[in-house]
Amino acid sequence: MAYYLLHGSIANNLGQLLISDLFVMPMGMDGRVGGEPIAFNSFIKQFELTGTLHTMDIPEADILQLKATLPEAINYGKSMHMVRKIDKLQFQMEKDLAVQKERLKNWKRAKGEQLELDFGDKGEFGIMKRRKEEKERQIQTISDKSSRYFQDLNTLDADPYIKVLAVFYNN
After folding, report:
1. In what order do the strands lie in the sheet with 17-27?
2. Rounded to an integer, what distance in angstroms lies between the CA atom of residue 28 and that of residue 95?
């Protein structure tokens, strides 16, 4: 068996990291999946890797086999682990997005009502007109930027980034 320690990450369109996860992808030396991906902490406990580890010489044939298995480990890591994490996060974000959009809508309505209270009985000319228009632009700008932020936040990259950190194997 070979155990590929992978770091998977996903960023949104704003460049903010939404998922960053260390996990181990178990693979048979023949290139077949050796089980479900394992959280790195669980892997350390399961195989008791907190003690002294000894480095041994690895035959060239084994290194070639590990290299040959690497692309499959990455593909399975993406499809079996990262896609599940992305789906879970996207579901949660969509729930949160609906709540945040409603809050933004309520905030904008309340600000509009406050604007009417502040400027409603005053004349629509001169300095008062400019102040009211300025406040209206501020409200609209905040609303537009927030709406765009919510849209960008909800857009996850389709392809997660996977970095190989180590390979553990036994022969």
Report:
1. 38-39, 17-27, 2-11, 161-169
2. 39
